[in-house]
Amino acid sequence: MTARIRRDPRAERSRCLVPGGERPRLVRDGNVADMVVPSRPREASVRRIEMPAFWVVAVVEAVDGRLDRWGRQLAGAARMLAGADGGVVLIGLGDLGDAEGGEAGADRVLAIGGLADPEVTLGMLMERGGSFDPRHWVFAESGSGADLARRLAARNGWSIQPGIEALTVRQSIRPCRGGRYERVDAVARIVTLPCDRVAAYAGEAHEGRRLEEAAPHTQASDRLVFGPVTRAAAGDVPLSEAPFVVSAGQGVTDFDAFHAVARALGATEGASRVVCDAGLMPRAAQVGASGTVLDARCYLAFGIAGAPQHLQGLGKVEHVVAVNTDLHAAIIARAGLSIVADAQAVMPALLALLREEGA
C-alpha cells in the first residue's frame, strides 16, 4: 500500500469534456467553461430519385396500413434489382402508411385498395403499374400474389419465374424436377418469391412519394360475382391465420381477465400445452410444435415460460411480447419486448389503459 491517491479516469474525462456538439471533444487542461459547442439535431437523410433509368414494381399485400415481413422482403428484392440507377414503385393491395414505403426502399408508393375480383385487380395493376413500363415485376409466391403474377404473365405474354429460392441482380435460382435440381437463369420480367428468400432493405430511406390512389373499376368480371366483403371477428379467425394472438400459459390464473384482454385488443386467443392439457383452454388454441404454428404479426404471451416445443410454434411471428415473472425464461430471450411481472397484475393494468384510450 502507498499513500498515492488513485486516479479516476472517468472523472478526469468529464472535467475535460466540452459540453454540446455532435462529437465528444476533450480539452486536456480542463478549461472548458467558455467552450460550449451547440448541438444541432441531425436530420434524417432521404434519397430522392426523380428520373430513374428504369422502374421495378413490387406488388405487396398491405394489412392494416403497414407492411409485414414478407412485404418488406419483396420491396428489398425490388430495390436490389433496381440498383443505384433504377427506381422502385411499391403497389399495395390495400392502404399503406406514409412512412412504410420509403423505409422499405421505395421511391414511389401507390395503393389500389384491397380488391376481391382478381380480374379487376389485374386490370388496375396493368393500368397503373404498366404506365411505368417496369423492367421487372416482383410478387409474393402466396395465394393471391402467385395468381396475379401468372395472370399478368399470361395476359401479356411475358416471361415468369415462380418460386425463386435465390435472387441476385444478374440471375435467379429456382427448383425444378420435383426439387431435385436447381435452374439458374437471367432474371425474368415477372418473378415470385416465397417468404424469407431475400433480405429486407436496410439502407438509407428513399422518398416513398405517395401517388394518387387509384379508384377501383366498377366493371366486374364476367365469370365471377362477388358479394360484400366484411372483416371477420377476431375470435373467428383461425389461429394459424390470425395476425394478432394473445396466449395464456401456466402463469395465468385469472382467465376472466385474460379473455377480457383478448377481446379488448381484438386478438385471437391461444394457449400453451399445459393449459390445454388442464382443460382451461380448448385444444384448438394450443400453440407449438404439437399444436398450431403461427404466422402472426404480434404474439402477446402471458405467463408462458417458453418450452422448446412452444417456441417452435413462433417461427414466423414478427413481434413477440412476453409477460413473465422469470427474467431468465426462454420466452424473454425470444421476445422483442418483455415485462418482468405477474400476469395477474399486468392484465388489469392493460385493461385500464385500454379503457382510458376508448378501446
Automatic annotation (TrEMBL):
Q: Where is the signal peptide?
A: none
User: Which SMART domains does this chain map to?
Assistant: ETF (SM00893)
Q: Which UniProt keywords apply?
A: Electron transport, Transport
Q: Name one GO molecular function term.
A: electron transfer activity
Superkingdom of source: Bacteria
User: Which Gene3D superfamilies does UniProt cross-reference here?
Assistant: HUPs (3.40.50.620), TPP-binding domain (3.40.50.1220)
Family per similarity comment: Belongs to the ETF alpha-subunit/FixB family.
Q: Tell me if Electron transport is a UniProt keyword of this record.
A: yes
SUPFAM superfamilies according to UniProt: Adenine nucleotide alpha hydrolases-like, DHS-like NAD/FAD-binding domain
Q: What residues does the Electron transfer flavoprotein alpha/beta-subunit N-terminal domain cover?
A: 56-227
Q: What is this protein called?
A: Electron transfer flavoprotein subunit alpha/FixB family protein
Which InterPro entries does the record associate with it? Answer: DHS-like_NAD/FAD-binding_dom (IPR029035), ETF_a/b_N (IPR014730), ETF_a/FixB (IPR001308), ETF_asu_C (IPR014731), Rossmann-like_a/b/a_fold (IPR014729)
BP GO annotations? fatty acid beta-oxidation using acyl-CoA dehydrogenase
